[in-house]
Amino acid sequence: MPLGLVSRRIDLFPGQPAPEPIRLRTLILLRWVAIAGQLAAVGAALVIGAGFPLLGVLLVIGLAVALNVMLMARPGRRIPAREAAWQLGFDLAQVATLLALTGGLANPFALLLLAPVTIAATALPPRHLLALGIATFLMVTLAAIFAQPLTFGPQGLVALREPLLVGHWFAIVIGAVFFSAYARLVAGEVNATSDALFAARLALEREQKLQHLGGVVAAAAHELGTPLATIKLVSAELADELADALPDREDLAEDVALVRQSADRCRDILNSMGGAGRDDLLIRSAPLTEVLAEAASPHQDRGAEISILPAPERLIVQRDAAVIHGLRNLIQNAVDFASGRVTIETGADRRNIWVRIVDDGPGFPSGLLPRIGSPFLTTRPRAEDGRSYEGMGLGLFIAKALLERSGAWLNFANAPQGGAQVVVTWPREMIEAENRAALGPNPEIRS
């Protein structure tokens, strides 16, 4: 897939938080693989009788283990590009230190100094890539200057005639496997994210088109109200004049009555068509409970009872189609897996406004909790009518993308009393609305 197409398909929502440059669990997995390889290399070096400061090497590897253990406390959280760059910088420094302790650039595994900058080139913005490239240059230089010689003695269990040659062979093979596997992994993640964001864009575009169409109809109903009223008034006066001037022309009286009836019918049609449009276009703010009721309305008759518990204070929020669509997806997922009840709670403090959606179903699978919200992740059962469709696993991803675009952050967990729960939290300044703010000018209709 061309890089330009990838960037166009990812930048779908202006103003949304930038997508994570590389998933945290991917960095953790790659670091565990590197740690395993480093320990294996240390063991192989001891077998062939290589001399190096073993305690220092194990201490440097232990630092990487400690970092990974700390990061595994929240492996599913979203990380910005800057944090990813710092983690790759740590990996670079760790590998450079190991090389300095084991022969410097003469060590065959010096090739692996390229791994962090390769990851940065595929996943990070240019400024972070440049910083990591400069760091790689410095680390390579320092590893060469402060290198401690690697010696080989006869005390090894296995005697190799050309240990460095064997080491170079292993380094090239391991490097080829690592770089190809990583490139494949990143390409798969980028393609999956791009496809999922493309589906999210289609869903949002459909919602926005309906909103704009309704707004145009509402404006048309408003603008046509005056001429329709004029037609009705003139036709009434004309009917009176015809009754006085031509009392025997009943056909003309019927025609004038038909004009009045047609005007009334046009008024009723425009009013009914413009009702939803006026809501979408002019109601820019609404109570949070009403926004949640609108989001839940398509799922009220699907088997599960939906209860919306209001906050102690009356919360007025921005009424945005993307937010409603995201909340609707979360509620749909809760209804799909609920045994019989979905509870929606709202609340606020001085800084934040939150919505908590809880169902009484089996809850999220514990093994999938760190990945909830990723694209194409689904455990949806097969349909009861026997169809093989199981869902694409995009509902929660689309909801997460749309709500994060509005400034929210989401937490997926299993409720203490059982069932799944999703907590959506906004900073007050991102979602709260002024209840008495001006609605703005009416839209202009051009022929």
From TrEMBL:
GO molecular function per UniProt: ATP binding; phosphorelay sensor kinase activity
Keyword terms: ATP-binding, Cell membrane, Kinase, Membrane, Nucleotide-binding, Phosphoprotein, Transferase, Transmembrane, Transmembrane helix
One Pfam entry name: HisKA
Subcellular location: Cell membrane
Any Gene Ontology CC annotation: plasma membrane
Listed NCBIfam families: ActS_PrrB_HisK
Protein name (Swiss-Prot/TrEMBL): histidine kinase
Organism from which the protein derives: Paracoccus kondratievae
